[in-house]
Design brief:
It contains three helices and six strands. The protein is 39% helix and 29% strand.
Length: 184
């Protein structure tokens, strides 16, 4: 009798394991191209491409040219897409293409002292993005993204530039990700 009970118990455990395994397989397949970052990646999309963002900031009145900004921003956008999707980054023929230009790099006084001296400055970076989705063309758009970093007027931009770029790039690239893949 003990052997019969053990066989039944083993049979039930095996059936339970098969049920759980089947459930997990169906659950995983049902998730499709969902990611835990909130990305809604169209079916069949396998790759993305980020073209170098041209630095045209010096062409606008009041805006200055910052060398290397084009490379640094392009790398920041590539990094967020690599880290928040399972898509492959390619150099050409991507299913998703991110391209555009840096159109503003401006330092402006934000607050004044009683003597009308600047108490705080603001660095603003503005990007014009062209997003092309070759798997779902109705998602294509062209849009500007901008963010800023405030710093005390007694500090020089060079002393806060690294931190400012990191904060601004993080916000703009997250906004681009949300607009293109999370549909926020």
């Amino acid at each position: 009798m003990k052997e019969h009970f053990t066989e039944k118990l083993n049979s039930m455990i095996l059936k339970c394991k098969l049920f759980i395994l089947s459930f997990l397989i169906i659950f995983i397949i049902g998730c499709g191209n969902y990611s835990f970052t909130g990305a809604s990646i169209p079916e069949g999309t396998e790759s993305f491409q980020v073209n170098l963002f041209e630095n045209n900031s010096g062409n606008n009145v009041g805006s200055i040219f910052e060398p290397g900004l084009d490379r640094d921003f392009t790398l920041a956008l590539q990094n967020i897409l690599e880290n928040q999707t399972n898509l492959e980054m390619v150099q050409s023929n991507g299913d998703l293409i991110y391209e555009g230009e840096i159109i503003e790099y401006r330092v402006s006084p934000m607050t004044a002292t009683a003597n009308l001296d600047a108490a705080q400055n603001r660095l603003t970076i503005t990007i014009n993005l062209i997003f092309s989705n070759f798997k779902k063309e109705e998602d294509n758009f062209e849009r500007r993204f901008s963010f800023y970093f405030d710093f005390p007027a007694e500090q020089q931009l060079i002393s806060v530039k690294s931190e400012a770029h990191e904060i601004i790039f993080e916000r703009i690239t997250q906004d681009i990700f949300n607009a293109s893949l999370a549909k926020w």
